[in-house]
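Case study 2.
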Amino acid sequence: MEKPLFYIGIDIAATTFTSSIGCADSHWHIIGRPETFENIFDSFAKFSGWLRDHGVKANNSVACMEATGVYSEVLAHFLVSNGYILAIEPPLKVKRAFKPAGHKSDPVDSQQIAEYAYRFWDELSRWVPREEILEQIKTLLTTREQFVTQKTGHHNALKALEYKHVHTPLAEKVQKTAIAELKTHIKEIENEIERLIGQDPDLRNLAALLISVPGVGLLLAAHLLVIIQSAPEPCTAKNLAAYIGICPYENSSGSSGWHTPTSRHYGPRTLRKLIFLAAMSNSTHNPQFKLYAMRKAQEGKPKKVVVNNIANKLLKVIVAVVRTNTEFIPGYRSVNPSLLNLALT
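Prediction:
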């Protein structure tokens, strides 16, 4: 696709959004003044009219906004449903593209987002809305994690009450009731996630493939489903590891600036926790990974490094299972094609 003529920069807030229009006809410039609209569906028609008044259409423009969670969801779906190309970029990435100088306001931010879309047009990732089932699964997973965190807090509070010399029966009863209710809700959420996956043939088949991998259960499979099915292109093990935050990166500069390669420690925390739990389980119960862990321990490798390596190996297995549409085969060994051809001749 050829480079668009107009670039729509949108700075999102909870109740409003500010938009600027950049044009790249003979040179880069902002058209008119930024405008602020209410961040509700009823005001989107006014926003569309403002774009049309400046000659902006879906086939000659690209819209760009920063990732702000739920604040941008309704507007994003509106733009895509009306044929606009939309990119939702990480705020830090946009911020680093400009020097920290001058005023900072919603109009200025919207102009910078528009300019960012113009400068990095060839690097923008087109945003595509998730399917309804995937969006529901993602929301349920987020809600479940919130309930698990609350349950842990109530459990710790109950333990503290039980250790006190003077007991307060009502306080202990309330904490126990809250824990029981949260456990019930968590179980309901897990059952609903399983039901949603089961009602879609493609998701059901993909979930079965993922669960066939050692250490992968329903929760980890559900998180992976959301990522794999929402990705604009097929996932690779390396990209998936980088996204989760378990991919070691070299950190060296000059003759004295060498550091041990380490991951960047950011990404979806819950998914990273689940993949580490799967890796630890395999290092204890799976014969292949157990032998690997023992060998690395004898070599003096730290336990965290060994678990991280097993997690990366698991991702390779997961990606291979999805790519080949074949369930995991215990004891499988890959064969070098050149050696196979040599044996046949």
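The beta strands are 6-12, 16-24, 28-38, 61-66, 85-89, 249-251, 259-262.
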